[in-house]
Amino acid sequence: MDAYTGFASVYDMFMDNIPYEEWCGYLTSLLREYGAEEGILLDLGCGTGSLTELLAKQGYDMIGVDFSEDMLQIAMEKREQSGLPILYLQQDMREFELYGTVRAVVSICDSMNYILEYEDLVQVFRLVNNYLDPRGIFIFDLNTEYKYREILGQSTIAEDREESSFIWDNDYDDEERINEYDLTLFIREEGELYRKYQETHFQRAYSLEEVKTAIEEAGMEFVTAYDAFTREMPKETSERIYVIAREQGK
Predict the structure, then answer these.
(1) pTM of the entire structure?
(2) Parallel/antiparallel/unpaired status of strands 221-227 and 240-246
(3) What is the set of domains in the chain, with CATH numbers?
(4) Which of 92, 98, 106, 150 is deepest in the core (most CB within 10 A)?
């Protein structure tokens, strides 16, 4: 079943523990540090647009790209409420197209982990390089092998709320480095009626060396990587890292 269909309607509810304002502050500090103080910014894998909205409020001209029609519908509802001039496009990040180049590209909340094949990761990086302004910046995050293996592993996570509940069954294949999680959702629709949705999500763990190689193979320049929300180099126990790359010719 397609990811982020039934889950899209309650995604923000279950992600209310994510400090988006803090994430936006960290991200904008990196963007400005590496020369993207203003201009057009692409949010690749924008989901329901929570971070896209915050970046627009920071003065960036925002474009949001996501594959999920359901997630984008919620993002556009937010845009209608805020009145912010955000352009949303429903596209697969492996073959996205823009009308012109952008000052920077960001991809946050482990969107790149959803790219399961190394060759597809290189293709995404090639497209990013193609649509960046000269010396434009690309910032993205990744869940690490350590997180999949040691934190998530073989586990079950459940949460029960008045309007909805979910069960997350996680399974990480250390040999294939593929993380599979099966979501079972019960979403209240009217009265005491709950509708059941089931989704299966797959993510891949990439080593930092693989990511560096993919960036260079795509024609980009690897700049640096940080342990998430710090300016420190990634550690063996880092659960999330931020990677910074730069456009280096078409």
Answers:
(1) 0.93
(2) antiparallel
(3) 7-144+206-246 (3.40.50.150), 147-204 (2.20.25.110)
(4) 106
